[in-house]
Structures are given as C-alpha cells and as structure tokens.
Amino acid sequence: MSTTDFADLRDSIGQLRHCLASLQSKYGDAFPIRRLANDVERLDIDAGELEQAPPPVVPAREREVVYVPDSRSDEAAWMGAQDEGLGFHSRERTK
C-alpha cells in the first residue's frame, strides 16, 4: 500500500470513530455499540501493524482466458448427469 492508501485508511477509521461516537450518544453503552467500538479499535491496531510491517507485495498473476463457444454442445455428453442444485429437471431422469 502506498502512503496515500494508508492515509485513506486512517481517514476511514476516523470517520468510523465519528459515526460510532454519534451512535454511542444515542444508544449509550449497549452491547452492539461496545462490539462496534471493539471492531473499530481492532481495525486501527491492524492498520498500524500493516503500515509498520507490510507483507511482501504479491505479483499480479496473468489471467487465463478460457474460450467458451456459443454453439450447441453435444447433448450426449450430458446424458447421465444430474440436475442437482438447479431445483428442477430439464429432461427425463436418467437411470
């Protein structure tokens, strides 16, 4: 991450803190508010750790393009296949 990315992350965490303060003033110390406060604190800690010791940059992988033709496929190739998960049977059940 660049310096700008870390600054944006810190700004976002600051905005979360501001929103959380508004919620705390409205709802008090309710359990969900305390959990959110803990989550925001954890985000802040994790962001600091990431900024201090970033992991190695993973090189971008080249995407493999798979061509899928628009022509009809051989129906015989699908004989015996199940329609499991589709919620319907588009053809007679196979044996």
Describe the structure.
- The radius of gyration is 26 Å and the shape is elongated.
- It has a domain at 3-52.
- Helices cover 49% and strands 0% of the residues.
- Helix 1 runs antiparallel to helix 2 (31-52).
- With 95 residues, the chain is mainly alpha-helical.
- The protein has helices spanning 3-27, 31-52.
- The protein contains two helices and no strands.
- The longest helix is centred in the first third of the chain and has 25 residues, at 3-27.
The helical percent reads 40-55%
Q: What ranges have pLDDT less than 50 throughout 5 or more consecutive residues?
A: none
Number of DSSP E strands: 0
Strand content: under 5%
Question: Number of DSSP helices?
Answer: 2
Question: Rough shape?
Answer: elongated
Radius of gyration: 26 Å
Structural class: mainly alpha
Largest sheet: none
Order of helices and strands: HH
> Mean pLDDT score, rounded?
85
Cα-to-Cα separation, first versus last residue: 56 Å
